[in-house]
């Protein structure tokens, strides 16, 4: 099983490097831009905080983008949320199906390993990728704060990154389940799931009728502006996330163990 | 009396409404080189893939080396060397790494046997998989199937893409392993291979299996199985 895990990690390392360095450096660049924009930010902050529903959707009604905390929560929060969600979807959506899609399944399945053991290796690989991605991005952002010499509340920062990791795990869990369905490349569906979840959250914050169902989406509990203004995380949202993650992963095992494998 | 290495009893497998194999029963004894003939789509690969647990069977049971193919799936695969008809590997890997990976997953050090096989089959272990032709990929697949010296070999159309010299070396290797106690199931379209190397044979057509009295059948009898299907 260890050999399969090692192989999976090696096969995915390039993608991990590209995505973590891209999202991390993009976040870092945004943080560094803060200093040059600081003066103009004050006027912008007033304008942005009075845009009604949209200000609320992006957290600009509660946090001022003129402060680094507010700037990080609204700008980098969105970049990291979208980037990490897409990465989680990309890693998980093909992790199972790629064997049959690339015809390597017969090679892999002829080894003395049960299908469950193969899935455990692949699941651990996805989890490892998400954790390393989060750590790399966190290091980039912390480097940005250090360069600027600005203080940022560390408790909130780590809570934000932790919740983002949970959101990534939830998106990846859904995609892991989808990946077990058939041996076809479903990259489009994976990206669609991540983007749909993000749009659901934005829409939910703009449209009052949807707001009460916001907890169903994975982006509801990792919203940076709420975390940085100490809004309590909805327990319902966390429960839904854990239930979805566990049930989608369990579905992947159940489905993969009962179906025929394509050559 | 020699022990049964493969015992298939009334195996039926369908893919929804499509026919797979119907009521197939087959026994292969230890030390046999068993020829498994049949036209494309007859059900040879379905039978093999059912034996290896890739497919969930609808009816019947399969015992390999005395073990149940469903319950003892992992144990069986430890003793089996399988070569699929299409030899696909991870494109970005180097041949040597693929061969080592196949041994590592089995928690075995097969380096001596692998080196011997690579030398005899002239496998360049430094090339990347994506640089290999079908024939060379097949040679890598042969090494992966043989390096752990399994008790049972299952080859699905192994010689397609191999040049005549490599085909000869491949059968020499099979004979050597069989002489040391292994058993081989050889699925093929090539009658001459069955005639020359196999001790027993069966032919599949339309998902049903017919045992042949002898593997040395003439071309006309052999082709009649194909022609009947076209009609």
**Major sheet of chain A, described briefly?**
none
Order of helices and strands of chain A: HHHHHHHHHHH
Query: How many individual helices of chain A?
Result: 11
The low-confidence runs of chain B, each spanning 5 or more residues with pLDDT under 50, are: none
Most extensive interface, residues per chain? A-B, 21 and 31 residues
**Proportion of residues in extended strands of chain A:** under 5%
- CATH superfamily of chain B, by name, is P-loop containing nucleotide triphosphate hydrolases
Evaluate the radius of gyration of chain A: 20 Å
The percentage of residues in β strands of chain B lies in 25-35%
Oligomeric state of the chains present here: heterodimer
Walk me through the structure.
The complex is a heterodimer of chains A (263) and B (231). Chain A is mainly alpha-helical and 263 residues long. Chain A contains eleven helices and no strands. The longest helix of chain A has 48 residues, at 2-49. Chain B is of the alpha/beta class and 231 residues long. Chain B has a six-stranded mixed sheet with strand order 6-7-8-3-9-10, sandwiched between helices. Chain B has a four-stranded antiparallel sheet with strand order 2-1-4-5. In chain B, helix 4 packs antiparallel against helix 5 (134-146). The longest helix of chain B has 16 residues, at 164-179. The A-B interface holds A 3-4, 7, 11, 102-107, 109-114, 258-261, 263 and B 15, 45, 49, 52-56, 73-78, 80, 82, 84-86, 88-92, 101-102, 104-106, 141, 144.
Q: Helix and strand layout, with pairings?
A:
The complex is a heterodimer of chains A (263) and B (231).
Chain A: H1 2-49, H2 53-57, H3 68-93, H4 97-101, H5 105-109, H6 115-148, H7 154-179, H8 187-206, H9 208-211, H10 224-228, H11 235-258
Helix pairs in contact in A: 1-3, 1-6, 3-6, 3-7, 3-8, 6-7, 6-11, 7-8, 7-11
Chain B: E1 4-15, E2 18-29, E3 33-37, H1 44-51, E4 59-64, E5 67-68, H2 73-78, E6 80-83, H3 95-105, H4 111-121, H5 134-146, E7 152-156, H6 164-179, E8 183-187, H7 191-197, E9 200-205, E10 208-212, H8 219-230
Helix pairs in contact in B: 4-5
